[in-house]
Amino acid sequence: MQAENIQILGIVIAAFVAAVLFGWILWWILRKKETPLDEMEGVEFEQYCAELLRNRGFIDVKLTKASGDFGVDILAEKDGVTYAIQCKRYADPVGVKAVQEAFAGREYYDRMVGAVLTNQYFTAPAVAAAKKLKILLWDRGYLDSMIEERRV
Question: Does the reported pTM lie above 0.85?
Fold first, then answer.
């Protein structure tokens, strides 16, 4: 009788582990699934982000010129706060360079807040640099919430 209970317990544990593993694999595949957002060219992504910001109540939203933009792609304002925003449409996590560009652009354009907006996530060094330089990091989760808010 005890051997049967152990065997049943083993089956239950194996089924549980298989379900967790299946769930994790499914989550990983869905997380990695590309969307039209991930296929945009750089300038198209910047224009899309500018429109999302307008829809979220940002005013005076302007795209900087493509070259010589001093590190940022969008200048905007919301609730009296001015922003310098660097947009990065990447296939991989965003690193420190984007944070440095947002910092430089914030200083050059004399804006109150610098931010990096991306379709990806940030590397640990980028997060550390952003904290030190006081740069906002708006990652894929934040971008998705902006898109979802737009649909409502």
Answer: no
